[in-house]
Amino acid sequence: MFLQCCYVFALLWCSSAFVLGQELQAPENKVKAAFLLNFAKLVEWPTNTFVNDTTPLVLGVLGKDPFDKALDEIVAGRTVKNRPVQIVRFTSVGQITNCQVLFISESERRKLDSIFDALHGRPILTVGDMKGFESRGMITLIKSNASINLRINPEAARQARLVLSSRLLRLDKSLRPPEEDPPAGPPQKTD
Questions:
Q1: Domains and their CATH numbers in the chain
Q2: What stretches of the chain show up as alpha helix (H) in DSSP?
Q3: Taking a C-beta distance cutoff of 8 angstroms, is the pair 148, 31 a contact?
Q4: Which end of the chain is more exposed for a tag (fewer CB within 10 A), N or C?
């Protein structure tokens, strides 16, 4: 248990790049919760997103909460860019009036089109972990063996007027240019 707590602490204070693709040392829901908090540190919202300098940054969960108490524990007492962090759980997209980072739960899979239509153009970073989420969502958390990888949709973020940091974009291996093969040596003689 102590090692798991240390790992989660490291997730919160180290760069997300450090934990990406690393073998999971803590329960999956805690690792994903830590990612949500770290994503908020790597996004710039439009200047009119917050009413004033003390307005909390809202991390929302839409649908059945897969985090149990992990998100509450990780966020407790934290600030992002000098703003307190608040967690709000939503049962419908119509309830979302103030939210900056929204995790859309697997329970909402059948409603995804209407959810994305309702959120279109709003400065809300959408995050999910279901297959195909990246087609309209901004960040997909993909479990691969014993690690979590990211798939990022920069165009969806641009449409919502969000600026994703280059540090965040580098975490998506699919956005990187392919590595070039080393130059071939001189041709080999064959007998």
A1: 2-172 (3.40.50)
A2: 2-13, 16-19, 28-41, 70-75, 112-119, 154-159, 166-169
A3: yes
A4: C
Query: In the block, which residue shows the tokens 């080999």?
Result: 188
Please state, as a whole number, how many other Cβ atoms lie within 10 Å of the Cβ of residue 21.
14
**Cα 142 from Cα 128, distance rounded (Å):** 9
Rounded CA-CA distance 59/124 in Å is: 10
Residue 173 DSSP one-character state:
G
State the Cα–Cα distance between residues 54 and 52, nearest whole angstrom. 6
Amino acid in the structure at residue 116: F
In this structure, are residues 36 and 59 in contact, taking their beta carbons and an 8 Å threshold? yes
Q: What is the pLDDT along the chain (191 residues), one digit of tens a residue?
A: 333 433 433 344 444 433 444 454 678 999 999 999 999 999 999 999 999 989 999 999 999 999 989 999 999 999 999 999 999 999 999 999 999 999 999 999 999 999 999 999 999 999 999 998 989 999 999 988 888 999 999 999 999 999 999 999 999 988 766 665 555 555 555 55
Burial 64-73 (b: 16+ CB within 10 A, else e): ebbbeebbee
Report how far residue 22's alpha carbon sits from residue 19's, in angstroms, rounded to the nearest whole number: 5
Which of 109, 101, 155, 116 shows the shortest CA–CA distance to 131? 109
The residue type found at 181 is D
